[in-house]
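Notes taken during the Thursday session

The instructor put the following on the board and asked us to keep it in front of us for the whole hour. The protein is Transposase Tc1-like domain-containing protein. We were told not to look anything up and to reason only from what is written here. First, the residues (128 in total):
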Amino acid sequence: MQTASTNICERMCNKSIYDISWLLNIPRSTVSGIITKWKQLGTTATQPQSGRPRKMTEWGQHMLKRTVRRSCQPSAESIAKDFQISCGLQINTTTVCRELHGMGFHGRAAASKPSITKCNAKHRMQWV
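Then, after some discussion, the predicted structure tokens were revealed:
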């Protein structure tokens, strides 16, 4: 596949978007997008990232997952403290909740299970 500058050169030679896409064997929408970007920005280079970069890296997510699995039912606040001690990265409790939710951990109440004593088992067997 050829570069965006080739598309622009073809456009400057008064070729249609259809002809350019046929010559370069790329979709018309791609050619049209490149030409529009050139007209608006004067370049086809990618623009800087918008927004703040993520605080958690893949390594941080891995360590957070290990911290959560190590203890049974910790709160987000205690997870953030443990994470700061083990990794040295200051992280907010809302960030912890967001990251854990993204990893598939959800805060849910445990199912209540009745304790089965000998007497309770006897009554259950009579009921059945």
